[in-house]
Specification:
Length: 499
């Protein structure tokens, strides 16, 4: 189940991750998987062990003293009624306990990720109060779960006392029929039967409650996934048969021309479109800057290019063509491997420098060092113990934000793609690093098609064209020299705001 859960979550769509809190996903992998691995199997074994022992005792008692069966019938009816009442309440309380743990995990994860911000704005006490309130909500369900367990325990112990007293009464009145040894056996078994009934009911109910975890994991094993194949070994994907397009054109894209044709994208099926009828063409080798206010659809445009979001109007002709090839005619692996990107938040894995630069393992050391030199990382990498094989901490914590971004730049240079995308890649770095990255891109990707989402508009004023988005539509598109002279134009207004 863990393999299926991991397989589907890794392949989950962007919509799944946008609508699912991280804490909820962590809860599935931690609490629910622990319940299944550690508790469920043991509980199932205990249930059948107790049940078989109980049936054996009943068989012995019914054969020795058949009259006891008439006593046990009403007792069993009470047991069953208690089990049904307790089972319904316990199942819902267990569900509430599992659900209320997700906000605890989510807030804790968010606090760790934003710890610097929390300390900067002196929000430590407020963060602690928020975490305490979420823990209290979880504790309420946990407390009620324990209270209802004691409620059941008191009643089961009372019924057990009734059974033991009835057996003792029966033995004392039929001492002429039963031998002392048989009487002692019945009394001993009656006490054992009480304990076995108690544990059989508890194991049965616990087993039903633990099946909630199975149900919750099974839910994530049926989430919407991307049509991409995962492999155990890093080189295995290169042995896949290529699509017919790449068989005929193995070096696609040769030029880097991009045609956006009537692109419409919605994150929520019932919500407004984030991209509404986007149509424009980027010629081969053009440098296009994309700007607009927050929520205008800039990042969504790149997500559509990488097919991380689907087109809502694909049946009506909405599509993206790269060198006259529809992106939907390629597999996701083929499409995404042919386009380089430098994201706003640099992503580094807890692995070696070599792996972070070249996850495929196909580049030579010479090629790796060449890309490192072009990114001005040579002195930094050489100072690390192990050089290219030096380990990077999780999230790249042993590198600054600027250094992590330069590693992403080296990764893009190493790929040598005809198309490069930058999603506000220099928004979080200092001015010197920003200037160096911009200079490197102009030099290393001089003949490539570049799409840049700009945080600082002055970084794209020398681009070939500017695309201004507004509420998911194209407000302006053309050379910056024309747009800056346009009266009351969107781009001209942005430049004026810069002073």
């Amino acid at each position: 189940m863990h393999h299926a859960l991991l397989h589907h979550v890794i392949k989950g769509t962007m919509r799944f991750f946008d609508t699912t809190p991280v804490g909820r996903i962590l809860n599935r992998f931690s609490n629910d998987m622990n319940t299944i691995d550690q508790n469920l199997n043991t509980t199932i074994v205990q249930f059948f062990t107790m049940l078989l022992a109980l049936l054996s005792i009943l068989a012995i008692q019914s054969s020795t003293a058949p009259m006891l069966l008439f006593l046990l019938v009403p007792v069993f009816i009470c047991y069953v009624s208690y089990q049904r009442f307790y089972g319904k309440s316990c199942r819902e309380l267990q569900r509430l306990d599992n659900i209320s743990k997700s906000p605890v995990y989510a807030h804790f994860t968010q606090t760790l990720n934003g710890l610097a911000t929390v300390r900067t704005f002196e929000m430590i006490e407020q963060s602690q109060r928020t975490q305490a309130s979420k823990i209290n909500e979880n504790t309420k369900a946990f407390l009620l779960l324990n209270l209802i367990n004691r409620w059941l325990g008191v009643r089961l112990e009372f019924l057990g006392a009734v059974v033991t007293s009835a057996v003792a009464f029966f033995v004392s009145h039929d001492h002429a029929v039963l031998s002392s040894a048989m009487a002692g056996l019945l009394l001993s078994y009656s006490q054992n039967m009480t304990s076995l009934l108690d544990w059989t009911i508890r194991c049965n109910i616990d087993m039903e409650n633990m099946m909630n975890s199975v149900e919750r994991i099974d839910e994530y094993c049926h989430v919407d996934t991307e049509p991409v194949t995962l492999f155990e070994h890093r080189h295995e994907r290169y042995t896949l048969p290529q699509s017919r397009t790449l068989q005929l054109r193995p070096h696609w894209p040769e030029h880097g021309k991009i045609d956006f044709v009537n692109i419409c994208v919605k994150y929520n099926p019932t919500g407004p479109p984030v991209l509404d009828g986007i149509t424009f063409t980027v010629k081969s080798g053009e440098k296009v800057g994309i700007c607009g206010r927050t929520g205008a659809g800039k990042s969504s445009l790149l997500l559509a290019l990488f097919r991380m979001v689907s087109f809502d109007n694909a049946e009506e002709g909405g599509n993206i063509y790269i060198d006259e090839v529809s992106t939907t005619a390629l597999t996701l692996t083929e499409l995404r491997s042919r386009i380089a990107i430098i994201p706003q938040d640099p992503v580094l894995f807890a692995a070696s420098v070599r792996f972070n630069l070249d996850p495929t393992g196909l580049a030579t050391d010479t090629e790796l060092w060449t890309a490192i030199q072009k990114s001005r990382l040579e002195s930094l990498i050489k100072c690390l113990a192990g050089g290219l094989d030096a380990e990077i901490l999780e999230g790249g914590d042993n590198f600054s934000v600027g250094e992590r971004q330069l590693i992403c730049l080296a990764r893009a240079i190493l790929r040598n793609s005809r198309i490069l995308c930058l999603d506000e890649a220099t928004a979080s770095v200092d001015h010197a690093t920003d200037e160096f990255i911009q200079t490197s891109i102009r030099k290393e990707f001089a003949n490539a098609t570049v799409l840049t989402i700009a945080h600082r508009v002055n970084t794209i004023v020398d681009y070939d064209k500017i695309l201004v988005l507004k509420q998911g539509q194209i407000a302006e598109f053309g050379p910056p020299s024309e747009l800056r002279r346009k009266p009351n134009g969107e781009f001209a207004g942005m430049l004026q705001n810069l002073g």
